[in-house]
Amino acid sequence: MPVKIIFGITKLLYFEWPIEGPFIGYIQAQTLPHIGEWSHYSPTDISNPNLSYKMFAKDMVIKLNKLAEEGEIQKDEIPEIKTIEGWITRYSTSLRKESAE
Asked: Rounded to the nearest 5°, which phi and psi values hold at 76?
């Protein structure tokens, strides 16, 4: 299954997905919680090797819930479907703007 890739992120272990403030829609990452500067990844930093593959917000929440059940992430870190839908909308809009330039 194709996955989205963020180059250089493998050395980062702590992630947040802001739902308010200037980094809405971005992924923020640090080496450890409260240690070091945040790295900010915008939707355009994420590439998709298979453009025909699409994941909908509901599918993403299902996968995140499975990761929570497996202990990979905390259940309270999983955003709501509406939040993910907003990310997808902003990502799509930014790609359209970028391709129009």
From this structure: -75, -5
